[in-house]
Amino acid sequence: MCSVSGRLPSDAQGAASAVELLLPAALAEAAGGSRSLVFRPGSPGHSAGTAGGAGAGGVGAGGDRAPTIGVLLELLRDRHPGVYRRIVDDAGDIRRHVNLYVDGDDIRDLAGPSTVLGPGAVVLVLQSIAGG
């Protein structure tokens, strides 16, 4: 697992390689009021943070572990457990009423939790709404 640090890299390349997790308003409260969480890829010791400078977590654990949706969710579990519980069920599966999109593509049409996150990827969380 990656280390967690509040320090954000200031170089332009670090910003370009960040992975952004966009949350619906309904999940913002569980993320400390933020609708955008930014994770910086890297090996242990690299840093990441949320937009606005709060908390952090690196995406990718170095070695043979590529930054994937699964790794991002692990980091989310550690840093924002309230958000994680609303996205992932008790069995560790993405809830069926939650859709995750990487750069506009549904991860269910890609490789699911194994979907690799490229530099600058944007992950959008959408929750289904039912009612009548």
Structure description:
This protein has 132 residues and is an alpha+beta fold. Helix content is 20%, strand content 17%. The chain contains four helices and six strands, in the order αβαββααβββ. It has helices at 12-16, 25-28, 69-79, 81-87, and strands at 19-22, 36-39, 49-50, 98-102, 105-106, 122-127. It has a six-stranded mixed beta sheet, with no helix packed on it. Helix 3 (69-79) crosses helix 4.
Main attributes of the structure:
single chain; 132 residues; alpha+beta; six-stranded mixed β-sheet; disordered N terminus
Give a summary of the structure in a few sentences.
This protein is α+β, with helices and mostly antiparallel strands and 132 residues long. The chain has helices at 12-16, 25-28, 69-79, 81-87, and strands at residues 19-22, 36-39, 49-50, 98-102, 105-106, 122-127. The chain has a 6-stranded mixed β-sheet, with no helix packed on it.
Helices and strands in order:
Layout: H1 12-16, E1 19-22, H2 25-28, E2 36-39, E3 49-50, H3 69-79, H4 81-87, E4 98-102, E5 105-106, E6 122-127
Parallel strand pairs: 1-6
Antiparallel strand pairs: 1-2, 2-3, 4-5, 4-6
Helix pairs in contact: 3-4
